[in-house]
């Protein structure tokens, strides 16, 4: 990855603009998750159908994330900017997001069920049109060594907004779905417009270099590596968070597991930036390894000695570990590909994360039969595989 940064290793205004877009994306997913069960109920469909819809969305995202990232790479070589491509995805996403509650205006009879299901899936696909392209811009805004620090602001954005499920649920009840979803669409459009304005001088500086970049398409090994790392990191984090919730309920009786999980998510966001600064000094591979080893330690202790004291200590260690892991995933993708292929690299990584979500849903019944210690050990094992892949692979010669 080649950076456009001059004297400053991080273009902070652009990074904060990208964090604003990430906040808008997370907010829309929170609204979507809060409203879909109500929507299914209105149409007389079982709420459990939401699991099947999520599985289909993740299955499609496995292919669409890298496809859209690659198409945005091509658009950047032709036009000098990813933003025409990103703008199409943002506007399509905003329009379909409004259409979700808008369907209920037409009625809730059986004939409209197919249209409702189509719009739900179409919206999630529209999100993939710009998600990997916009996140790939992070590689334009910082040097390779400072990627974990810059990425930490995306971790903060996702973490803080992601904790707002109760607020969004109440907002939907107070304002109604149409007004609430209008807020989500407007926030996305404004955030994207702000980032476009901030990005303009960076894109103009990069356009010539990217247009003449003759870097070959990364090898199949590189592409498979990014997808595998996304899968292992994504699944490992999901399993560890599920283990945390179960451990709280089982070994910390009398505690509100939902409230504690809320504070865990906030704590991960709070420590993300200082840990991103540490990762910049250590190097992302070492920092990511430290995070995974911390999670493995917690998983092992919970598997062998699941006492209340160990659970409480493990949660504290896991907060630091997961912050390092969340900061480090996207930089791995960006550091493995030249800047002209950043969209493809990020898309493959996000496709791997979607595969992790699909795998989690498919194996949910079997995972419920595992002990909490076994669940945490499985999560630790998935994270260890990611680190083994990372250390087995030589650093890419393409980044500058």
TrEMBL record:
Keyword Ribonucleoprotein belongs to the record: no
Keyword entries, A-Z: Membrane, Transmembrane, Transmembrane helix
Keyword Transmembrane applies: yes
Superkingdom of origin: Bacteria
Signal peptide region: none
Designated name of the protein: MFS transporter
Organism: Thermoleptolyngbya oregonensis NK1-22
Segments passing through the bilayer: 12-31, 43-64, 85-103, 115-135, 147-165, 171-195, 216-240, 260-279, 310-330, 342-359, 365-392
């Amino acid at each position: 990855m080649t950076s456009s940064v001059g004297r400053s290793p991080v273009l902070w205004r652009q990074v904060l603009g990208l964090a604003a877009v990430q906040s808008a994306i997370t907010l829309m997913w929170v609204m979507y998750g809060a409203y879909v069960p109500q929507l299914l109920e209105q149409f007389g469909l079982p709420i459990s159908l939401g699991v099947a819809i999520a599985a289909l969305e993740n299955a499609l995202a496995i292919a669409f994330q890298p496809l859209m990232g690659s198409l945005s790479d091509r658009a950047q070589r032709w036009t000098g900017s990813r933003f025409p491509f990103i703008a199409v995805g943002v506007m399509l996403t905003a329009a379909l997001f409004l259409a979700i509650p808008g369907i209920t205006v037409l009625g809730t009879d059986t004939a409209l069920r197919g249209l409702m299901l189509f719009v739900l899936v179409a919206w999630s696909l529209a999100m993939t049109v710009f998600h990997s392209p916009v996140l790939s811009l992070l590689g334009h805004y910082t040097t390779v060594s400072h990627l974990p620090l810059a990425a930490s602001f995306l971790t903060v954005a996702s973490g803080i907004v992601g904790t707002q499920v109760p607020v969004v649920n109440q907002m939907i009840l107070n304002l109604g779905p149409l007004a609430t979803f209008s807020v989500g669409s407007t926030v996305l459009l404004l955030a994207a417009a702000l980032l476009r304005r901030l990005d303009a001088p960076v894109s103009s500086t990069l356009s010539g270099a990217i247009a003449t970049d003759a870097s070959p398409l990364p090898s199949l090994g590189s592409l498979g590596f990014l997808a595998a790392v996304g899968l292992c990191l994504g699944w490992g984090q999901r399993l560890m968070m599920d283990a945390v919730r179960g451990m709280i309920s089982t070994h910390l009786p009398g505690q509100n597991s939902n409230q504690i999980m809320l504070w865990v998510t906030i704590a991960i966001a709070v420590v993300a930036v200082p840990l991103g600064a540490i990762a910049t000094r250590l190097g992302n591979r070492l920092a990511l390894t430290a995070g995974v080893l911390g999670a493995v330690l917690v998983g092992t202790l919970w598997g062998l000695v699941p006492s209340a004291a160990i659970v409480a200590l493990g949660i504290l260690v896991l907060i630091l570990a997961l912050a390092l892991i969340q900061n480090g995933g996207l930089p791995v993708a960006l550091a493995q590909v030249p800047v002209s292929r950043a969209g493809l690299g990020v898309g493959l990584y996000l496709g791997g994360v979607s595969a992790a979500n699909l795998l989690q849903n498919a194996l949910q019944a079997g995972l419920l039969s595992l002990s909490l210690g076994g669940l945490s050990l499985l999560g630790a094992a998935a994270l260890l595989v990611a680190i083994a892949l990372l250390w087995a692979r030589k650093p890419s010669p393409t980044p500058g």
